[in-house]
Amino acid sequence: MCRDRMPGKGVRSLASCPACACKAAGAGVAQAKQPLGGTVPEDDYSRKRGKGDVKRSYKIDTENFQRGESIYFCGFISVSYDFIGQNMNEQYLINAIDAALQAGEQILKVYHDPAADFQVEQKADHSPLTLADRHAHEVIAGLLKRQTPYPLLSEEGKLTPYAERAAWTDLWIVDPLDGTKEFIKRNGEFTVNIALVHRGVPVMGVIYVPVKRCLYFASEGLGAFKLEDIVSLGAESLPQLMERALRLPAREERDKFVVVASRSHSTPETEAYIAQMRRQHAEVELCSSGSSLKICLVAEGKADVYPRFAPTMEWDTAAGHAIVRAAGGDIWQTDGSAPLHYNKEDLHNPWFIVLPGGQACID
User: Fold this and answer.
1) Domain extents for the chain?
2) Distance between CA atoms of 94 and 65, rounded to whole angstroms?
3) Burial of 360 (0-12, 13-18, 19+ CB in 10 A)
């Protein structure tokens, strides 16, 4: 476990850490070294949570993070799930893509109709619900229930009691319209989110941006992709979609360290994290976007980190989490104890940090 503090040393290679080099000797393990706030105990090397799951060293001392100390955080990620056969995997991904595109079409019918009444209602948590949310949910739920064997957990659907959900090995987690406030504002930064979760881990994800006609899709074993200018599936197969899509991450050369910061959910903890990044990097640039697009910025390689010290739900992150995982990154709880986990009894997420893959230790 890395616990090096070397001010001014900059980027260090993975092999420079004896503990990491030892762990890297394991066959088939993808390596990523990632910075977070806090310190990492040397004696808490790793744990393995199941076949093909995660072999990582992680633990964060948040007291040192609050004091602004730098740390090195090493992760070892093995992605060898065989949760379903490859053919079925591809078919379910096509089903999810089709559902997202059809939902996007229904959303735009409401969005672009000048005479449309959004029929905005307030949900129990005071978040808005519109006619477009309901139509999108109906499309997605209907298609996935007809074409796949897995149950559905949707923001706009009836919540199944945890006593029943706990037995679900696989399930769809869906936000039919993520960014309802953006939809009402008509700024175009809303998405359709669909994820397939296996034993609490998001292994397949689709995010569609209807106004921009932009599609993100990913599956463990296939990778992560971004496809522009798509409104319907037509007769295209998954290999055809992948062929004309951009494989993620498409890392951009830049001198600035880019932090994704929410426009509407800034907190003292977020400001403290950004301040820490400013101490660690010569120039820090803040960028923002609506809905799950913030996670996509990291998956694409357009941003270096997305810290979230504010409330979210599982359906807000599951699809983006699948995409960033397939692109080599992950979404970590801010205490460093583990990645986000899904289909919990309490569907609220803990605070988290989205990190890209292949990132070296940085002081």
Assistant:
1) 86-248
2) 42
3) middle
- 31 in helix, strand or coil? strand
Which two structure tokens, joined as six digits, stand for 118? 């959004």
Both structure tokens of 180 = 């309802």
The tokens describing 206, both together, are 């689709």
Greater pLDDT, 69 or 305:
305
d(CA 228, CA 74): 34
The answer for residues whose C-beta is within 8 angstroms of residue 279's C-beta and 6 or more apart is: 68, 70
User: Tokens 């910075």 correspond to what residue?
Assistant: 35
- Rounded to whole angstroms, how far apart are CA atoms 272 and 63? 12
- Of 76, 329, 91, whose CA–CA distance to 223 is shortest? 329
Among 88, 91, 130, 90, CA closest to 113: 130
Spatial distance between the Cα atoms of 221 and 79, rounded to a whole number of angstroms: 7
Indicate the length of the chain as a whole number.
363
- Residues 78, 80, 81: CA angle, nearest 5 degrees: 125
Q: Which amino acid is at 74?
A: C
3-state helix, strand and coil shares in percent for the chain, rounded to the nearest 5: 30, 25, 45
Residues near 338 by beta carbon (within 8 Å), at least 6 away in sequence: 54, 58, 332
- What type of residue sits at position 319? A
What CA–CA distance (Å, rounded) separates 191 from 176?
Answer: 8
Angle at the Cα of 131 from the Cα atoms of 290 and 203, rounded to 5 degrees: 50
pLDDT, tens only, 155-197: 888 899 999 999 999 999 999 999 878 888 888 889 999 999 9
Spatial CA neighbour of 157 closest among 173, 181, 180: 173
Q: Which residues touch 358 (CB under 8 Å, ≥6 apart)?
A: 32, 328
Tokens found for residue 340: 């986000």
- For domain 86-248, give the CATH superfamily: Fructose-1,6-Bisphosphatase, subunit A, domain 1 (3.30.540.10)
- Token pair 């790793």 is at which residue? 46
In angstroms, the CA 198 to CA 107 distance is: 28
Q: The whole model's pTM is what?
A: 0.77
The tens digit of pLDDT for each residue in 87-138 reads 778 999 999 999 999 999 999 988 887 666 555 555 555 455 578 888 999 9
CA–CA dist 95, 125 (Å, integer): 31
